[in-house]
Amino acid sequence: MPELPEVETIARRLREVVKDKRLKTIQVLREKSFQGNPDLLVGSTIIDISRRAKILNFTFSNDLHLLVHLKMTGQLIFVDAGTRVGGGHPTDDWVNSLPSKHTRVVIDFEEPGTLFFNDLRVFGWMKVVDQAGVDQEYGKYAPDVNTTEFALQDFQEKLSKRSQPIKVALMDTSIVSGIGNIYANDALHLAKISPLRPAKSLSSKQVKAVYLAARAVIEKGIELGGATIKTYRTVDGLSGDYQSVVRVYQKESQPCLVCSTPIIRIKQAGRSTFYCPHCQK
DNA sequence: CATGTGCCCTGCATGC
DNA sequence: TGCATGCAGGGCACAT
Asked: In 3-state terms, what secondary structure has residue A190?
């Protein structure tokens, strides 16, 4: 579910509440959700929380790392005396008592508080790795869209070799990381480029427009604490506000914000694509 | 190497 | 009500 802005938001929120806490117990309720030996973290203290692509990285005082990928339906919720902080896929588990039937891993700290990893579809994972493991995991991904390492020239070069639709290329983590379905759709609308265009068919000016638009929508997402799509309630400490400014994602038949033409929905690479047939060429 | 498809899982909304 | 289908913010293995 979460894309870069959502994961970044979770990293920032959790940093405030679990940094310097010492792990007391860790329960793995679903084997598939956890790789490695969880007991290696017991007694160790979280000294930092960071993010790369859509992966969260809890750094422990014993130089081990707990990496977390939330995939489509993962959530991380820290609970302490009634207050909840975190985020991820919005479900009733945001407000229901935890653990729930979707809770896969429970982490208790010596200090007050518990961190729940919930994941309805069980696509997500946690894994314990050393620094080499972190490097290996990060090495699978092209630069993050919101960094200087994501260079326009490299982007252009990669796109020039791709005949696949630009929308699909934008979501390819070997080209750029952090852009999922919400922001890929919105970036192309902002750039006024049709998602159907073969990547290699874009002019250099159009590539630049897509590049800048991708960075812009991701930045906006981070600024607003990510998107909480399809939720009927706002939960402090868990939801975000990008959905209030979303351009086309899940807006089939609704008027384009620019020209009022109804937004069209198609399917590309098995995922829904939304775009304005008038504005995006 | 680039591209397309299926698949990992569970739950919800929709339609018959 | 039951049942089938399609869809869900990700990414991998695999075939071609």
From this structure: helix
A230: Cβ under 7 Å from strand C? yes
For A55-112, the pLDDT digits (tens) are 999 999 999 999 999 999 999 999 999 799 999 999 999 999 999 999 999 999 999 9
Find the catalytic residue in A13, A51, A54, A84. Answer: A54
Cα A63 to Cα A123: distance, rounded to the nearest angstrom: 27
- Is residue A196 predicted with pLDDT exceeding 90? yes
Asked if A233 and A164 sit in the same domain, the reply is: yes
Q: Tell me if residue A54 is catalytic.
A: yes
Give the Cβ contact number of residue A271 at 10 Å: 14
- The count of structural domains within chain A is 2
Query: Peptide bond preceding A2: is omega within 30 degrees of 0, i.e. cis?
Result: no
User: A267 and A222, same structural domain?
Assistant: yes
Identify whether A2 is a catalytic site residue.
yes
Q: Which nucleotide is nearest to A172 (CA to C1')?
A: C11
Could you read off the pLDDT of A141-161 as tens digits, one per residue?
999 999 999 999 999 999 999
> What CATH code is carried by the domain that includes residue A164?
1.10.8.50
